[in-house]
Model the fold of this input.
Amino acid sequence: MKLPNVFLCRTPLRVLLVCVGTLSFVGHAAGGVIRVGVATTPLSTPFFVADKMGYFREEGLEVVMIDCPSGSNCLKQLLESKLHFATAADMPIMFRSFESVPFRVLATFATSSNDVKLVTRKSAGIKSSKDLKGKRVGLLRGSAGQYLLDLTLLAAGIDPNSVSIVNVDVDVNRLGQAAADPQIDAFALFQPGAQHMSKLLGSDAFVIPIPRLYTLSFNLVTLPDRLGVSEDDQVKMLRALERAVDFIKAEPNASMRIVQERLKMDAADCAELWTDFRFALSLNQSLIATLESDAHWAIQAELTKAKAIPNYLDYIDVRPLKRLRPAQVTVVK
Done:
């Protein structure tokens, strides 16, 4: 599988109406409920902090956060009009863009170039990425885990097709089944799955040192001109997140305690992951480059039937963040 150079050279709601057991939406007026799908990962820390510190309420928003097992699930619920906003990484955004669905990214609020780990079994004799040739790797197909695996293999001069992929359920509550399968030699997982897998493998776990080839972005996504959420509401949402980011930078220990409480995480586990994340509001041109590289990979890896890369400028709405912090918008439209 040959991938293009652009792929290899990247650094990076309204009032609820319940009727006959069915959840429906009506347009939300001032003071109405805004539903936000939030992935249960430390990358969502700005939302956890904004909720805990009351920033949404102080901005005049009544926010209900809906926990999602992944950003992909959040985005799915948004597109089903069950949410007003969703948190999602660049990978699910890229895959949904091939379906020409009308969503818009309002801001990136977290990034990490070390969120995905390659966790191996020492007993499989894997000490470096070169040792993965001919091995079986467990991951979620079409995820950042598979993307980073391919990047790592290519950087080591190994054809990704020489590695057998085993699709696994990456929910931390179900990773035990994959860990118990001795036929799986290694795992390419994003957090907190990678950390959990290391615990499950115990003394047999080894994390391969790899170059930081991929910077994952976590983003705030909404639907355009839908669900009764105004641009003013979007600006208020971003302002609350900005206040949360400022709090995270000023009070990291207090922020970690909020994450621990929200995600039921052990303090040591949270501290171990904390330095992998960078929290800041932005809409950078690098997001476009990331999505384009993601799309090149998905097409080359035949993970989509699409043959053309979408114009990702069509999936970005710069107006709310430009109103709040114009200097933090470098996307050129």
